[in-house]
Amino acid sequence: MSxxxxxxxxxVLVPGMLGFVRLLLxxxxxxxxxxxxxxxxxxxxxxxxxxxxxxxxxEQLLAxxxxxxxxxxxxxxxxxxxxxxxxxARYAAAMRPDRVASVTSVAGPNHGSExxxxxxxxxxADSAKGRLLSVLLRLIGALMSLLETGxxxxxxxxxxxxxxxxxxxxxxxxxxxxxPQGLPLTWGGQGPELVNGVxxxxxxxTLQPGKTDRGRNLIDGTNRSCRLFARTFxxxxxxxxxxxxxxxxxxxxxxxxxxxxxHFDIVNQSxxxxxxxAEPIRLFxxxxxxxxxxxx
Length: 296
Ligand code: CA
Known about the structure:
alpha/beta, 36% helix, two-stranded antiparallel ribbon, Rossmann fold, binds calcium ion
């Protein structure tokens, strides 16, 4: 890609639950940032609380956007959120549409995650299993924050019940009542692309036997986890990426919702190990050109 396809505004990449910028040398957006920069884009991978509500994460994101605007002199940013990062970006855009040119949801649970619903039902917070899960998440979060080398800032607050609530179907329905920008009006439909001057886009993948469970995913344990998690889906059984359903991911213009990518493949995890024929980085590079063409 030439400089001519670089978006006008900086790209700000927002991670999902248990997200990070870099664990030791290992980046969350594996190979994606370099590819976007090769196209001439200005790119920032930001960190927000790995375990917290979309609203708390969104406030942290707004603070980072302020810093990025000061640092770059840009008037706005383009937000690209993976998973819960999509809800985080939607919050920031709803609160400050003057500072956000676009929100792009990558495998975002914009109508909730059936995996979160399953965990709420089978691992309730007041049960022994639920408490064990909470302790486990807290330990993983603590370990990850020790290994984080890409974030330098104050210690980020942890709220596991709020984090979980922000991902269930009921929790996201409440969030959507307050922040409906870009949502489709009908299940499986597309949403408006332009709301309050902010452009909305989404893409997502599904597990596709023979594709997503082949290729380099044969040696990626996260694909096995996705296949296991997919069994908890009812409404979108057979049409999910392991953590988010195909239609649940819809926001604004739906670029695609059936890429052969599991929930981790879509950000080129782990270490670029993806299924047969999958090209997750290409989707980001193409999207940078789409944003540029839209004038943002
Ligand atoms: Ca993978």
